[in-house]
Amino acid sequence: MSIDIDQAAHVAKLARIRVEKDDLPALAEEFNTILGFIEQLQEVDVEGVEPMTSVTPQRLRRREDVVTDGGQQDKVLSNAPDAREGFFAVPKVVE
């Protein structure tokens, strides 16, 4: 696949990037270079390769999925300008 100057201008317009007409050939060439790299990646055989989360094997830390209140209500409300009955108090905005 090859990108010409008109297609490069169209991509720039879609991305809302202003590109001067003199810079369009260089942009099209850069797009073509990127597409070349993508074509090289498509040639790699990944059949049977397991997905990875990191380049070093490691297990993800897991915790039990339970709903809690966080146990920090006092800390959270300590910075509130006005707190009543365990909640933030705010001015009434609807009559």
Key traits:
95 residues; Histone, subunit A; 3 helices; flat; ATP binding; ATP-binding; asparaginyl-tRNA synthase (glutamine-hydrolyzing) activity; Aspartyl/glutamyl-tRNA(Asn/Gln) amidotransferase subunit C; transferase
E-strand count: 2
Outline: flat
Radius of gyration: 28 Å
The poorly predicted ranges are none
Please render the helix and strand layout as text.
Blueprint: H1 5-14, H2 24-42, H3 73-77, E1 83-84, E2 87-88
Antiparallel strand pairs: 1-2
Family: Belongs to the GatC family.
Protein name: Aspartyl/glutamyl-tRNA(Asn/Gln) amidotransferase subunit C
Pfam families: GatC (PF02686)
Describe it.
This protein has 95 residues and is mostly helical. The chain has a domain at 5-42: Histone, subunit A (Orthogonal Bundle). 36% of the residues lie in helices and 4% in strands. It contains 3 helices and 2 strands, in the order αααββ. A two-stranded antiparallel sheet has the order 1-2. α1 packs across α2 (24-42). It is flat. The chain starts with a helix and ends in a 7-residue tail after the last strand. The mean pLDDT is 90. Belongs to the GatC family. One of its GO terms (molecular function) is ATP binding. Keywords: ATP-binding, Ligase, Nucleotide-binding, Protein biosynthesis, Transferase.
Give a short overview:
This protein is mainly α. The chain contains three helices and two strands; from the N terminus they run H-H-H-E-E.
